[in-house]
Amino acid sequence: MMxxxxxxxKSKLERKQEVFLRKKVSLFRAVSxxxxxxxxxxxxxxxxxxxxxxxxxxxxxxxxxxxxxxSMLGALSYAELGTSIKKxxxxxxxLKETLGPFPAFLRLWSEFIIIRPALTAVVSxxxxxxxxxxxxxxCPAPALAVKLITAVGVSLVVFINSWSVNWxxxxxxxxxxxxxxxxxxxxVPGMMALAQGRTExxxxxxxxxxxxxxxxxLAFYSGMFAYSGWFYMNFVAEEIINPERTIPxxxxxxxxxxxxxxxxxxxxxxxxxxxxxxxxxxxxxxxxADRTLESFSSVIQILVALSCLGAITGGLFSxxxxxxxxxxxxxxxxxxSMIHIRRHTPLPAVILIYPLVLLMICIGxxxxxxxxxxxxxxxxxxxxxxxxxxxRYKEPDLHRPFKVPMIIPGLFSTMxxxxxxxxxxxxxxxxxxxxxxxxxxxxxxxxxxNRYRGPVWxxxxxxxxxxxxxxxxxxxxxxxxxx
Length: 483
Prior knowledge:
The protein has helices at residues 2-17, 27-38, 42-54, 57-84, 91-98, 101-136, 143-163, 165-195, 216-227, 243-272, 275-280, 284-292, 297-328, 347-351, 354-363, 366-394, 407-426, 428-439, 441-449, 456-473; strands at 338-340, 475-477. The protein is an all-alpha fold. It has a two-stranded antiparallel ribbon with strand order 1-2.
């Protein structure tokens, strides 16, 4: 009996020392990750973009609701994919399993060169601006100071994600709470003013003569940017406790909460501020706080900065798993499928996009970066849900713990592709650049697929570099299969 107990303890100790990604994401952590990632800088900077491209307060509120509905259609589709295809990797792995390796690699390439660096830079610059501006008010903050603080914030997030999964999850919960407090400080004064009869800004809210139809896709881009993040739970599926239950519950509940909060926040904005004041504001939340909180307005700026930091943390935590999985699937260099021997984090995958993020922070144009990454991002999300439809017919006997009506992925795919096509007309320069950068992955795909068939000296060089990096980062291949 004693020998059996000793053997059991020894087995547990050996498993504890083995290198693999642990299941540490509970339902509470999953909801915190999603809400904390969705609510970033979007609700604090996107209202201006939505209003500018929709033409009226009423149309902008409708677009906010429609963006929530579109996101819910996508979330339901991704919940089915996440419970039937149980690998981490999100968009990438679903494209690979349903449509094949080529579109999956193009999504991976876009994630590396456009989507993740651009999105991280947009949110990070918002963080830097909200941190720095109180020290220079009423003058505008120097661009260099904003970029330096932004770089420090990104570096901190990269360090935390590299250090510990547990610490990342705990910090994310704290930052999610700060987001909800920030939204509460906007919603409560706005609703109080509305209850007191301040409805003058909603008079003639729908001015159809001023709705710029050609710009509506860009209004949806701005709104959907604020909702982006509902799919991040699928990126870390292998680290979720009881994924068949956790993924659908976390995704659906998080989106319902966020949609209601976003609508209330926008109503609060327009109760206090006119459309012209929203358009003239560099930071809508700060302008709102100056009117309602007066001397305590700096509190909003700090909370919004923490909100942005939470979005960066959750985004990096999730996206690093895409590169980890792609490397494991032999579509990305081997080093990125390795895990730190003590920290049990995918260290090389975490730091991969760090240099590109710093480069885009130097560029610093928020709306240009937003439009640049939107084309490939929504194109591939439409393809993922189209792949779900194809997968239903391709694998009819596959166990699907959570299943949605076929019309849901069909509607989401159609909406995504419609927005992508019309955006080429609305902003051909930015979307064209995004398309070109995406297609630059075509030759890279063939090089990556044939990297082990080249000359001997080339293969030896790749092996040598991999070994040197492995020693430098103290990483090894995972020792237990988690998918």
